[in-house]
């Protein structure tokens, strides 16, 4: 009799456990706000809303952003190449201002073409004067 009960209850428990895990996973994903692509807004980094971003706020924001993207199945590529707090803090006062962040973002993206590629990359880059298969 014991074997018959196990055969009946075990699949039910497995199904119940699987449903619970999937439900909790769905709940966690549903609670993770979507992360917008591209550079973050200064206001998103300024967690205490005092108009500046400290090194601690910067580190916390970056960790939260990476965790949110990972939870969405979109881990940050090239995270090792991301700018450091020190590279953004151009005046060295230990705080980031909106002007410092904006200046860095403009300098970083100024050389990119309209398609978001770096200079010399992208559709048609370096093809001037070369015959195209379309023209033949």
Q: What is the element layout, followed by pairings?
A:
Layout: H1 2-31, H2 42-45, E1 53-54, H3 55-71, H4 85-88, E2 95-96, H5 98-109
Antiparallel strand pairs: 1-2
Could you list some keywords that capture this structure?
136 residues, mainly alpha, Recoverin, domain 1, two-stranded antiparallel ribbon, 2 strands, 49% helix
Largest sheet: 2 strands, antiparallel
Q: How much is the average pLDDT?
A: 73
β content, as a range? Answer: under 5%
Question: Helix/strand-derived class?
Answer: mainly alpha
Output the number of helix runs. Answer: 5
The assigned CATH architecture of the largest domain is Orthogonal Bundle
Please write the string of helix (H) and strand (E) elements.
HHEHHEH
Terminal-residue CA separation: 81 Å
Radius of gyration: 25 Å
Global shape: globular
Classify the fold: give the CATH topology of the largest domain: Recoverin, domain 1
Helix amount, in percent? Answer: 40-55%
* CATH class group of the largest domain: Mainly Alpha
Number of strands: 2
Short structural description:
The chain has helices at 2-31, 42-45, 55-71, 85-88, 98-109; strands at 53-54, 95-96. The chain is mainly alpha-helical and 136 residues long.
